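Notes from hallway chat w/ T.B., transcribed later so I don't forget. T.B. wanted the structure written out for a chain they're using in a teaching module, and asked if we could keep both sequence and structure tokens in one place. Agreed to drop them here.
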Amino acid sequence: MRAAFLGCPIDLLTMAETVELAHRAMRSRQRLQHVALNVAKFVNMQSDPVLAADVANSDVVGIDGMGILWGARALGLPATSRVAGVDLLAELLAVCAQEGFKPYFLGATSAVLDRALQVARERHPSLVFAGWHDGYFKREQENDVVRDIQSSAADCLFIGMPTPRKERFLAAHRDDLGVPFIMGVGGAFDVLAGTVRRAPVRLQKLGLEWVYRIYQEPGRMWWRYAKTNALFAGVLAQALIRQGLRHPLGAPGALPPGPSRIGG
């Protein structure tokens, strides 16, 4: 189910539904591009119309971050769960191992990529990769990377490059890659390789993964999260105020009180 969230399309899907869509695409070899939407990407979209268009033109826009999930619920959308990109990657690697689909990894440094490939093979001994390439290629090497992906006959492509670079890469080449399922995974290769640790599950459920990231990389992460979280809170607050003015509590069309108001 596709919905509009603060001017951005989002798909209200569960993990199982998302995995099934990816599985169907790989089985039929019909292209499906998935983008994971979190607060940082949403905030960047507000000042980058090219990125906003790239996201809007994706086939599936999944709710990756708890902030997006809570914001959608606050605005009355029936969002039941998020589909974190790192978790979706893990699920799809298991599907590839079981069904014989061949993934291609693109992104990260060579060292991180090698370790991520090793860990994936240790977890799934039957997994066969179509290919891989680090994300530190130069502009003049881009066509060579595209040709390598084309010739690999990959069933799925996971891209671990930063925003908006991966979105621009896909906007330019997704129709030429010949890969049925394509997904940006952000820093998931670092998590898979073990160079970045995920927050404990309890912090994930509380929406505090960003606090754990700041704890791990304070010099790089504190300003990014302080800025993006504040900007997102401002945009959401304005939308809630506008919604309240349009539909005062108790007026026709107002959202009912209680848990159902936020899709609970």
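Follow-up for T.B.: The two ends are 17 Å apart (CA to CA). Might be a good example for the class.
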